[in-house]
């Protein structure tokens, strides 16, 4: 069996874990939630109290996953794009979510305002997509807009396109600034972000 990995990236609360878990089930492959693995195997340098996050040592993560994933086919959910050592990355999927929806989700999850602003700004300026393309090249990366979409239907659509090898047809064109300018919440979002 030849091992490979599909990495699902995006900012916090876009649906990486749900999408990845459902896709892994559909493909009959394993699923790893990277934040859980990092905590479980202590693949971090330290816990940053101010940000409420673990500072991840990606060399440790890459090495550990390289050995864990030998001979396996796996979907990995991760905020950060990274390459597991010696394991081919078949595809990187960047999930995108309209910033106003993202804001609501992060509020519901109890994120502090500064962290909400940080994630919204990253989403607005395409940071997850930029970082992923920089790490893997454009030909291995697709982005999917998950805004107001049913995750089960999205996974079914992805699966159909994946088995037909026509993934680029799913690649969304995302321009949140243009999209938000058409709404009545654009000014509210700008005022919120301006505080940080």
Describe, in plain words, how this protein is organized in 3D.
The chain is of the alpha/beta class. The protein has a single domain (4-194), classed as Rossmann fold. Helices cover 46% and strands 19% of the residues. The chain is built from nine helices and seven strands, in the order E-H-E-H-E-E-H-E-E-H-H-H-E-H-H-H. Strands 2-5-1-6-7 form a five-stranded parallel β-sheet, with helices on both faces. Strands 3-4 form a two-stranded antiparallel ribbon. The model has no long low-confidence stretch (mean pLDDT 94).
**Low-confidence blocks of residues:** none
CATH superfamily: P-loop containing nucleotide triphosphate hydrolases
Could you give the order of the helices and strands?
A: EHEHEEHEEHHHEHHH
Q: Count of DSSP helices?
A: 9
CATH topology, by name, is Rossmann fold
| Domains, number | 1
Task: Lay out the secondary structure.
Layout: E1 4-9, H1 16-27, E2 30-33, H2 34-40, E3 44-48, E4 53-56, H3 58-68, E5 73-77, E6 89-96, H4 99-108, H5 113-124, H6 127-136, E7 141-145, H7 151-163, H8 176-181, H9 186-194
Parallel strand pairs: 1-5, 1-6, 2-5, 6-7
Antiparallel strand pairs: 3-4
Summarize the structure.
The protein has 196 residues and is of the alpha/beta class. The protein has helices at 16-27, 34-40, 58-68, 99-108, 113-124, 127-136, 151-163, 176-181, 186-194, and strands at 4-9, 30-33, 44-48, 53-56, 73-77, 89-96, 141-145. Helices cover 46% and strands 19% of the residues.
């Amino acid at each position: 069996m030849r091992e490979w990995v599909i990495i699902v990236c995006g900012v916090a609360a876009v649906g990486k874990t749900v999408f990845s878990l459902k896709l892994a089930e559909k493909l009959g492959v394993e699923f790893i939630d990277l934040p859980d693995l990092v905590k479980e195997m202590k693949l971090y340098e330290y816990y940053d109290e101010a940000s409420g996050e673990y500072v991840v040592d990606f060399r440790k993560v890459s090495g550990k996953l390289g050995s864990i994933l030998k001979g396996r086919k796996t979907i990995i959910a991760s905020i950060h794009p990274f390459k597991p050592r010696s394991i081919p990355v078949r595809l990187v999927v960047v999930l995108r979510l309209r910033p106003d929806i993202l804001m609501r989700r992060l509020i519901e999850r109890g994120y502090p305002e500064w962290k909400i602003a940080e994630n919204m700004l990253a989403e607005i300026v395409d940071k997850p997509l930029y970082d992923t393309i920089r790490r893997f090249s454009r030909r291995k990366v697709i982005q999917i807009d998950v805004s107001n979409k049913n995750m089960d239907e999205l996974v079914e659509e992805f699966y159909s396109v994946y088995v037909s090898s026509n993934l680029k047809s799913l690649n969304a064109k995302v321009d949140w600034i243009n999209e938000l300018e058409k709404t009545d919440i654009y000014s509210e979002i700008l005022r919120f972000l301006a505080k940080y």
